[in-house]
TrEMBL record:
Domain ACT residue range list: 393-457
PROSITE patterns referenced in this protein's UniProt entry, alphabetically: ACT, ASPARTOKINASE
Ligand binding (ATP): K8, F9, G10, G11, T222, D223, Y228
Family of this protein: Belongs to the aspartokinase family.
Keywords of the record: Amino-acid biosynthesis, ATP-binding, Diaminopimelate biosynthesis, Kinase, Lysine biosynthesis, Nucleotide-binding, Transferase
Name assigned to this protein: Aspartokinase
Pathway(s) it belongs to: Amino-acid biosynthesis; L-threonine biosynthesis; L-threonine from L-aspartate: step 1/5; Amino-acid biosynthesis; L-lysine biosynthesis via DAP pathway; (S)-tetrahydrodipicolinate from L-aspartate: step 1/4; Amino-acid biosynthesis; L-methionine biosynthesis via de novo pathway; L-homoserine from L-aspartate: step 1/3
Gene3D superfamilies reported for this sequence: Acetylglutamate kinase-like, Aspartokinase, catalytic domain, VC0802-like
NCBIfam families registered for this protein in UniProt: asp_kinases (TIGR00657), PRK09034.1 (NF006540)
Organism for this UniProt entry: Ligilactobacillus apodemi DSM 16634 = JCM 16172
Catalytic activity: L-aspartate + ATP = 4-phospho-L-aspartate + ADP
Length: 457
């Protein structure tokens, strides 16, 4: 087995020809970068639209039987501009044009599979084009079609997860002869349909390949120099994280560190492959390493702080709830009946709060669930709280430091921000606070200031 790396380049790194030029320089600078995972072209500037989003429009217009020629041309023009940047002769784009324009003519099992197939083509066409450009520049490279290499995923068209046999199939890839250019974001169901991971899922493809091929490391190239302690859109010039553990990243990514997909940690953990998040625009910088817990000694109390606004909570109060055998079971059965998973369930003696991902709820399911809970448990109070945000503070260093919780709560309360809920994660490396949505970003700022500005004064 050869020593190799998997390198994934995000949409921001592949947005146009100039960005792709930087990517190619990075690829050829290290012979170990043998497997390259590509996203679809992302935004070229703040007001631009990602190719994935253009494809979603194309899919919707197709479903509504509208004229799709303009959107199809807009998508094709993104690829054409990249090809032209490298003076790739236009005949190389004939196949790409055909695949793109004919997407609307295929038969799909249903609207969800149609949407998945359209979305996946952002990555598929980009990987195909990048392999052609590399060959044109004299760099040996081959496009890998997920269908031909057995990249199998579950039959959930737009929220798939990998099937175990995919790992054995990908381990057979002919690594070493030429660079393998693999499109991220999607796989094939056992029935042969395209299904995508959730949004941002090219990170997952990279991690699966890194695990299957026992890569030395998984490099994830993006548009920031490092993963920062807090989202740079919320905190000005936040401190960079040099090294963090898998479980810290998993908790932070889950709660909103959008720089790395939370599900992408899992294959990396399974294969114990270290992850290096780096900047395509400054590849000489060390970036952030995400490593196994065994290889890590915390130097800070907290590693990261993040807020997430896409939650809704159901508050239930009933005296003597703690004595009622089977109460939680009844609740879980109701959630199962409506096929709704829950995120957290902090509880007190007479009450509990169930926190849901609001994207999974419709007004109708909320109403039906409430009616069922009312009938099954007869609570004294049952109330949906939609104005709900979660602040997650994460750090391996939190376990061994006394008074951290107090300090976190004080830094928020001092600024008059009400806390609806406090939940110490079972892993003891995280603390979760519930606040109103409008307060969430400020809560992150104040916690950051307490631990990173006041402590270092
Ligand atoms: N804590 C954080 N550290 C760094 N970037 C963050 C953080 N939280 C959110 N981000 C955002 O994540 C973005 C990179 O992720 P993404 O847009 O998915 O990149 P790509 O297009 O490379 O896949 C950054 O531009 C930044 O705005
Ligand atoms: N292109 C897909 C998958 C992805 O991972 O993209 P990016 O690397 O730009 O986050 C999306 O927009 O969801």
């Amino acid at each position: 087995m050869i020593v190799m790396k998997v390198a994934k380049f995000g949409g921001s790194s592949l947005a146009d020809g100039a960005q792709l030029k930087k990517v190619i320089k990075i690829i050829v600078a290290d012979d170990k970068r043998q497997v390259i995972v590509t996203s679809a072209p992302g935004k070229r500037d703040k007001n631009d639209t990602k190719v994935t989003d253009l494809l979603i429009t194309y899919a919707k217009q197709t479903l509504q039987r509208q004229d799709t020629s303009a959107i199809c041309q807009a998508i094709f023009d993104r690829y054409l501009a990249i090809a032209q940047y490298f003076a790739l002769p236009e005949e190389n784009l004939t196949e790409l044009h055909k695949i793109l324009f004919e997407l609307k003519d295929h038969v799909y099992p249903d609207a969800k599979y149609l949407m998945a197939a359209f979305k996946a083509h952002g990555e598929r066409l980009n990987a195909y084009l990048i392999a052609k450009i590399l060959n044109h520049l004299g760099i040996k490279a081959r496009f890998i079609n997920p269908k031909e290499v057995g990249f199998l995923v579950t039959s959930e068209p737009n929220n798939a997860t990998v099937l175990p046999q995919t790992y054995q199939a990908l381990a057979q890839l002919p690594v070493g002869e030429e660079r393998l250019i693999v499109p991220g974001f999607f796989g094939l169901t056992k029935e042969g349909q395209i299904a995508t991971f959730s949004r941002g899922g090219s990170d997952i493809t990279g991690a699966i390949l890194a695990c299957a091929l026992k890569a030395e490391c998984y490099e994830n190239f993006t548009d920031v120099d490092a993963i920062y302690v807090a989202n740079p859109k919320i905190v000005t010039d936040p401190a960079a994280i040099t090294t963090m553990t898998y479980r810290e990243m998993r908790e932070l990514a889950y709660a909103g560190f959008s720089v790395f997909h939370d599900e992408a940690i899992i294959p990396a953990i399974q294969g114990q492959v270290p992850i290096n998040v780096k900047n395509t625009n400054h590849p000489e910088l060390p970036g952030t390493w995400i490593v196994p817990e065994t290889d890590f000694m915390p130097t800070q109390t907290i590693t990261g702080v993040v807020n997430s606004n896409h939650f809704s909570a159901l508050y239930l109060h009933k005296y003597l709830l703690n004595k009622e055998v089977g109460a939680t079971l009844k609740l879980l059965e109701i959630m199962y009946k409506y096929q709704i998973s829950y995120e957290h369930m902090p509880s007190g003696i007479d009450d509990l709060t169930i926190i849901f991902d609001s994207d999974l709820l419709t007004p109708e399911t909320k109403q039906l669930m409430c009616e069922d809970i009312q009938a099954a448990l007869q609570p004294d109070q049952l109330e949906w709280i939609d104005d709900y945000a979660i602040i997650m503070v994460v750090g391996e260093g939190m376990r061994d430091h006394k008074g951290v919780t107090q300090k976190i709560i004080d830094s928020v309360s001092e600024h008059d921000i009400g806390i609806h809920m406090i939940n110490q994660g079972a892993s003891r490396i995280s603390l979760m606070l519930g606040t109103k949505r409008a307060d969430a970003a400020n809560a992150v700022k104040y916690i950051y200031q307490t631990f990173f500005e006041e402590e270092n004064k």
